[in-house]
Design a protein that fits this description.
By secondary structure, the chain is an alpha+beta fold. It is built from 6 helices and 13 strands. The chain is 24% helix and 30% strand. The longest helix is centred in the middle third of the chain and has 19 residues, at 89-107.
Length: 250
């Protein structure tokens, strides 16, 4: 996973922006499958690659109330570990909401429960989401992995990966987002696709969690992929790291 490009360190180092991704796992057929789509070829970030639905956090994501359908406390605590800048549950919650919103925009899939919002959101994307009679539900999401884009890339994101069972999908609508060829793939099939390196690594983590029967457990250490001293590291965010916000190298 090293970055061998000669100009990677000579470019201006961009500050990573918060982003979120949702891994939807369908086990109805017996063999677990995940939803992947191909990014458009004209996009600056990972053009033509197969990815999970996701994108950067929008300021409006912090303004959406989730009421009783919130993330489990353990997920919120892990999301705040080593969080740069404003470290708060509201920001942690916004990451999960961004994953839900981006999945709606890119895949036309609503993760939520029936009901109207406490107040009408101003953001157009959230207005479209609520127009279908549902509000977002985060209780079934599990914080699964974290990865920071290496320096030298045209876009940099501090991405949190969440996973959710396909049964959490409550509604489907037609959409024309950044992803095409949206299809369900087994882990084995997904390995043959043109995947970004980090997607491929997270996919292997996913396979291991599924095999261990721990996919949706919130007390399992969360892998954190990032670059330190020009090398990539896989750290673990676990219950010990929560107390001192310290990361342990695996």
């Amino acid at each position: 996973m090293t970055d061998a490009r000669p100009d990677a360190t000579s470019r201006k180092v961009l500050r990573p922006r918060d982003a979120a991704t949702l891994i939807i796992v369908d086990t109805a057929s017996g063999e677990p499958r995940v939803l992947l789509g191909r990014r458009r070829g004209d996009l600056a970030f990972m053009p033509g690659r197969y990815v999970f639905p996701g994108g950067r956090v929008d300021p409006s994501d912090r303004l959406i109330a989730v009421e009783a359908d919130d993330l489990a406390p353990g997920n919120i605590e892990r999301l705040m570990v080593d969080m740069k800048g404003n470290r708060s549950p509201a920001r942690a919650r916004a990451l999960a909401l961004a994953a839900v919103r981006e999945t709606f925009e890119e895949a036309g899939l609503l993760i939520g429960v029936q009901g109207a919002p406490a107040s009408r959101p101003k953001a157009e994307a959230w207005q479209r989401f609520f127009s279908h009679g549902y509000r977002p539900a985060l209780a079934k999401l599990t914080f699964f992995a974290r990865a920071i884009t290496p320096p030298g890339r045209p876009r940099r994101y501090d991405t949190r990966f969440f996973c959710v069972a396909a049964e959490a999908i409550v509604h489907r609508v037609a959409t024309d987002g950044e992803l095409s060829d949206l299809e369900w793939h087994s882990i084995e099939q997904a390995r043959t696709l043109d995947l970004p390196n980090i997607t491929r690594v997270v996919l292997e983590d996913l396979g291991e969690r599924i095999a261990a029967g721990a996919l949706h457990k919130s007390d399992v250490p969360v892998p954190f992929y990032h670059r330190r001293n020009r090398n990539f590291h896989r750290d673990l965010i676990d219950h010990e790291a929560l107390a001192g916000t310290r990361l342990y190298t695996a």
